[in-house]
Amino acid sequence: MKPVSILVLLAGFTLGLTACGPSTESEVVTEISEAERTAYLDQGKSIAGATFAVLSSRLQKAMGEGGVPEAINYCQLNAYRLVDSLSKVHKATIRRTSLLARNPADRPSELEREILETYAGEDAAGQELKPMVRALENQEVVFFAPIRTNAFCLNCHGTPGETLKEEDYALIRRHYPEDNAIGYQDGDLRGMWSIRFRRQE
Q1: At what angle do helices 166-175 and 34-74 cross, to 10 degrees?
Q2: What distance in Å separates the CA atoms of residue 42 and residue 180, rounded to the nearest whole number?
Q3: DSSP 8-class letter at 78
């Protein structure tokens, strides 16, 4: 499997760890050349891949040490700071967002919702979901890539009483009372990466 495919498939269990909330302003999309589009797709994939590698290794370590309770503890205490740090390293704003968010801070902006709904429609039609970029009038570029669940993700995002233990879900609900991020099956579309960086002059 290609590295990008692995990234898209496995990144779901890091969803919910967000650097910054969505923009509340309406954003105007502008045109870019195919050469720019290719370059920004490569840049976004590189940032997403590096971020996923760090977050996934640390989350897997937490799960191995104490299961879902330890993973929740890690997410709440460390993950936000880590994503903020990675955003500074890459000179970008790194988010994961979903139509069914666990943390209210992960709810999509207007532009993100539009892309998520596009991905959902393509997924329902059985189409291959591909990363994309949008250039904005404020000289920023936003990279998007779909995130799918895998079996590991279901420990926290599966069906309560089946793939998600009832006691673990009760703990999740205590930490995230507005949680909507359950009921997923292996391979489901979970959400997407939304990575924002400056457009090159």
Answers
A1: 110
A2: 32
A3: I
User: Does an H or E element contain 191, and which?
Assistant: strand 189-198
Confidence of residue 22 (pLDDT cuts 50, 70, 90): low
Residue 134 near residue 111 (C-beta atoms within 8 A): yes
What per-residue confidence (pLDDT) applies to 70? 86
> Which residue in 17, 164, 130, 158 sits closest to 77, CA to CA?
17
pTM: 0.84
* Residue 190 φ/ψ, nearest 5 degrees: -100, -35
- CB half-sphere exposure, 149, CA atoms < 13 A: 22
Sort residue 187 into left (φ over 0), alpha (ψ -120 to 50) or beta. Answer: left
pLDDT tens digits, 95-121? 999 999 998 989 999 999 999 999 999
Q: 14: Cβ–Cβ under 8 A, 6 or more apart, which residues? A: 52, 55, 56, 59, 79, 96
Place of tokens 């309406």: 26
Q: What are phi and psi of 5, to 5 degrees?
A: -65, -40
What is the helix (H) or strand (E) element at residue 49, kind and residue range?
Answer: helix 34-74
3 state SS of 132: strand
| CA distances in angstroms from 53 to 4, 46, 50, 57, 145, listed in the order given | 12, 11, 5, 6, 15
